[in-house]
Every structure is written in C-alpha cells, then in structure tokens.
Amino acid sequence: MQKSREDRQAAAPDYHVDRQVGFFLRQANQRHVAIFTNAIGDKLTTTQWSALSKLKEIQPCSQNQLGRETAMDVATIKGVVDRLVKRGFVATAPDRNDGRRVVLSLTEEGLAVIAANVGAALVATEGTLAPLTSGERMMFLELLQKIC
Amino acid sequence: MQKSREDRQAAAPDYHVDRQVGFFLRQANQRHVAIFTNAIGDKLTTTQWSALSKLKEIQPCSQNQLGRETAMDVATIKGVVDRLVKRGFVATAPDRNDGRRVVLSLTEEGLAVIAANVGAALVATEGTLAPLTSGERMMFLELLQKIC
DNA sequence: TAAAATTCATTCGTGTACAAATGAATATGA
DNA sequence: TCATATTCATTTGTACACGAATGAATTTTA
Question: Phi/psi at A62 (nearest 5 deg)?
C-alpha cells in the first residue's frame, strides 16, 4: 500500500538529515578533497588531477570525451582544461578530420607533474581510507561503485 | 624503507584514477544530488535542504552554528542562508545577548516547505541506495560514516 | 542529396565550497 | 581591568558543478 502524503508528513518528526546517505556522501567527499589538497604538492585540485591522469591514458582526445571519461559536465571540463592549459600542462590543437573538435594532449610539463604527484595521490587515497581495515576497504569500494 | 621518488614514478603506469576512492566519492555524490534534485518539488538544493532540516531541529541558532552542524564553511552557509531568507523560508534577528550573532529561525513558509518535501527527500535517499540490498545498505552506511 | 538530428565547444547564470582577510563583539587570563 | 585571544559575520577570489541556450560542424535518414 502506497504511503499517503499525510503519512509522510506525520513521519516528519522522525526525519534526521544527518542520518541520510546524501549527508554522508557530501561530507565524505569534502574530507577526501581536504586530504588530497593537503597531500598534493603542486596546487592541483582533485578534478584537475582526474583530468590529467585520464588524459594520460586516452590522449589524444577531444574535450567532451575527456569530460565524459571523468564524469564532468561540458561546462565543467571546459573550465578545468582551460586552467590546465594556462598552466602549461595540456596542449590544444584543431582536429583535421573534424572541424568541431579540439584535440587535447599532455605537454612535457603535464607528464612531469603527473609523475611528480602520483605518490601524493596514492597517499591521499590511503588517508581517506585510513579509518577502514583492509577488509572494510574492499567491501566499501565495491558498494560505493554500485551507487555511482 | 621509504619509497624513493623514482619508485613512485615507476609505479605510475599502474595508477588508474578511475579506481580511486575519491573518483567514486565524487561520482556517487553527483548521482545523489541529481536524484535529489529530480525528486524534490520546490527547487531546493541538497545543501539548502540540509540547512532547513537542521534548523528545524536546533532553532533558534546562529549562522555559524548552523554551518557547523551541517558541515558548511562560514562563507558557504552565508550564501545558503541568504538564499533561504530571500525566499522567505528563514528569518533573521539580532541576538540581544551577543551583538555579533544573527539568530536564525524558520518561518511558517519554511516549516511548510519542509513538511511538503520530507517525502521527496526520503524518496531521494531510497533512490540513491536503490542499487544495494537491505543488508548492503546497512553495511555501506556504517562504513561511509567512518570515513567522514 | 537535402532535411533533420546529433555532436562539439562555448557562454551565461546560479549555487556550492573553501582559503584568507577584515572588523566588530565577546571571552579569557594575567 | 586591561591586553590578548577567540568568535561571529562578512567579503574577496578561485574553482567546481550543472541547466540551458547558442552556433558551427558532422552524421543520420528519409
């Protein structure tokens, strides 16, 4: 039987935001970002790091494709790439086969900054998962992936 | 023995951003926000909802206190509260005992909008956890809380 | 092939998120 | 009590995050 609107309102007193998944997800993400920011040396954000790392795997590729691979909106990936270009980590070039596309690739500096920070990135991952045992980490990662 | 910088660089090829907790946490949060936005009727964001719900529990309280209770920066909570005030959901008043503080409280409209959306908030929580079984949900929430 | 649909990149507007700095008010301690 | 420290709220600047709109280029399909 479907709950009526009144039933739900009656249940309101029992509602606690700070027991909802969304509340925890936001905080967990915040904590990870803080840990990452602290661990990384070259003033790179988590999203910039995602873009750089993924670009290394799939370069050369278009901007939108990089966005898709890193779960970033077209508007978001644009800003991220712009900042990485400005800092000299990413290079852009027109696509000869497709006049719409901008081809992205890593520069020498981009490759260098990745190499210099992989360690810190792993430390950040470790720090985020620190409160969990080895078994808990595996379980948690598995469940977390399911709700992505 | 401490890993040298070279060792870490050598390990770089095995590194995959899309297998790190941070990558999943960001995406899971994004998915939840999308589900919540879709479920809610009155154009409320997840953070606005957190502020409203928490305020109902602890009102009257100062702006910074509400921020602390909802894990929001002083600058962040200011923006959130400003928007809620502008929409008539939250009222502000000077604190008689403390000249620095602004006392926040819910208006009638604020209480009404909470009552009208508790159901949708629960639906959003349900939707976010939908890929998990009942047992998995309990386990996941427990582990998630540990890394907040 | 011509029209319709899709894709790419860009721009605008709104809303978190946080570091850092500021000034006013209150609390603390010597 | 008076100087120091803390707290509160605000402001500035930078960086995601996404909906929505735009125009150019490409693909699909009728």
Answer: -80, 165
Q: What is the pLDDT of residues A87-129, one digit of tens each?
A: 999 999 999 999 999 999 999 999 999 999 999 999 999 999 9
Q: Is the pLDDT of residue A3 over 70?
A: no
**Cβ-7 Å neighbors of strand D:** A 45-48, 71-76, 79-80, 83, 97-100; B 26, 30, 33-34, 37, 62-65, 74-75, 78, 95, 98, 100-102
Please confirm whether the linkage preceding A13 is cis (ω < 30° from 0).
no
**Total Cβ atoms within 10 A of residue A106:** 19
For B89-118, b where at least 16 C-beta lie within 10 A, e where not — what string? bbbeeeeeeeeebbbbebeeebeebbebbb
Q: How many CB pairs under 8 A join A and B?
A: 170
**Residue ranges in A16-133 assigned as alpha helix (H):** 21-39, 46-58, 63-69, 74-86, 108-129
Quick check: B49 contacting A, CB < 8 Å? yes
Distance CA B14, CA A115 (A): 12
Give residue B10's pLDDT band: very low, low, confident or very high (50, 70, 90): very low
Which chain B residues in 8-37 lie under 8 Å from chain A, judged by CB atoms? 8-9, 11-12, 15-18, 20-33, 36
Nucleotides of D strand lying within 7 Å of any protein CB atom: 7-13, 15-21, 23-27
What 3-state class would DSSP assign to B78? Answer: helix
Task: Return d(Cα B63, Cα B55) in angstroms, integer.
Answer: 10
Burial of B87 (0-12, 13-18, 19+ CB in 10 A): middle
Residues 6+ positions from A41 with CB-CB distance below 8 Å: A116, A117, A120
Q: Quick one: CA torsion of A63, A68, A72, A77, rounded to 10 degrees?
A: 0
